[in-house]
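Q: Joint fold for the lines below.
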Amino acid sequence: MLQIGPPVAAVLPAGDANVLAELQPIARCRRFRREQDIHLQGERCDFWYSVGSGATRKYLLDVNGRRHVVDIHLPGDFFGFSCRDRHRFGEQAIVEGTLIRCYPRTRAEALVDGDANLSRAIRARSFGTTQRLEEQLLILEEITARRKVHAFLTHFCTRLPRAPDGSCMLPVSRYDIADLLGLSAETVCRAFTELQELGAIRLRGPRHVRLIQWTSDFDR
Amino acid sequence: MLQIGPPVAAVLPAGDANVLAELQPIARCRRFRREQDIHLQGERCDFWYSVGSGATRKYLLDVNGRRHVVDIHLPGDFFGFSCRDRHRFGEQAIVEGTLIRCYPRTRAEALVDGDANLSRAIRARSFGTTQRLEEQLLILEEITARRKVHAFLTHFCTRLPRAPDGSCMLPVSRYDIADLLGLSAETVCRAFTELQELGAIRLRGPRHVRLIQWTSDFDR
DNA sequence: CGGCCTATTGATATCGCTCAACATACGTGG
DNA sequence: CCACGTATGTTGAGCGATATCAATAGGCCG
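A: Joint structure:
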């Protein structure tokens, strides 16, 4: 069974947010509707982006038309970093009115080149992305669907704002979770139901989750 | 079915290798034996590393003692980048005599701070790591073991040196592949056998693989 | 030669994908 | 307001895929 690591935000220097504010002058803010694309797969990598509010998914449509989700971005996250000139993945808003800050890449790089602190802050964000993806890999290496879903919720809920009772509102559908975990939506549903029956989570509405302290294995 | 993206090396600016050579003065080179740890999980992040020769695995031992492999590093790859102060993962040599360059982190960061080109090169490496992990996530999201193994081989072989006939020597065991793909070693074995029967690969010895051009689905 | 590690194959029970049906929520237009 | 349509979420049945346990083969090194 997996011990989920701390979220990226908890390990990033708190001062980074101030440093990153230096990028604001060149940012263009845009709002996106649910399912609207921020950039498409194959498009030129002309911007860096950060999430102001809402949530986005990084996804790929494969040759069979199946959708793969490789990452979810939440407020504070940066995305669009790339070492190639075209995006391998598309990125789209998950929630209505998602606010995105778009930083023209050339200008952003010029700013970063001239400011070692800013450069460190961006580097820390990039390392943080690596960390989040590594955590996601661990989750996908879990064997059973129930464990995958539980590990996902454990990790994801640390990244979400929490109500006083410790519960979270998931911005993502069962389909998003399925495409992120490489499972069918039905299996994800069943895992939610089973986890609730086992007392690992409590649901008040399909997207309103509270994680319960739980030490045992989930193999009944 | 998945279209595997190009390897990171193919999209990194060729000049980066020269730029990164500026880190050599502070590098300490060490050789590691098979299975020897380069750093442990939980250890302080005091170094950046790059692979000179051989191969390494980034891994985690979970509370049940199961080993998870999240990445394989080959010559030219950097690792040990982190935005936390302690390593979540261990890293160990896979092949005998693996050559590792160790860069003291504080000195490396100071060098990078003072050189925008070097800073860009390190950033590009970090973005490249992100790209490799995203590709690995896509592989893990494949449904069947056969597809996972085939996608892994397709991606991994682009990172390996290739003989004139297009064949590769895998530096990793079936167990490494299993722990990387979240499968049992037996299932990985069977997938190799099936892929060969289907004509997707040819094996001359367990680790000597040649990928065959193959357009069809692998679902018989 | 013997021991160990890696790789392979077999048998079986469990798990998850698929297809199907149904429930629920929400928005829209009448 | 209700009727309806659509998207989302849930549950069921059955089959194929994979984990697991087991046994065996092969290679390498002392």
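Q: Anything notable?
A: The helical segments of chain B are 8-11, 16-20, 105-113, 116-140, 145-157, 174-181, 185-197. Chain B touches chain A through 53 residues (CB under 8 Å).
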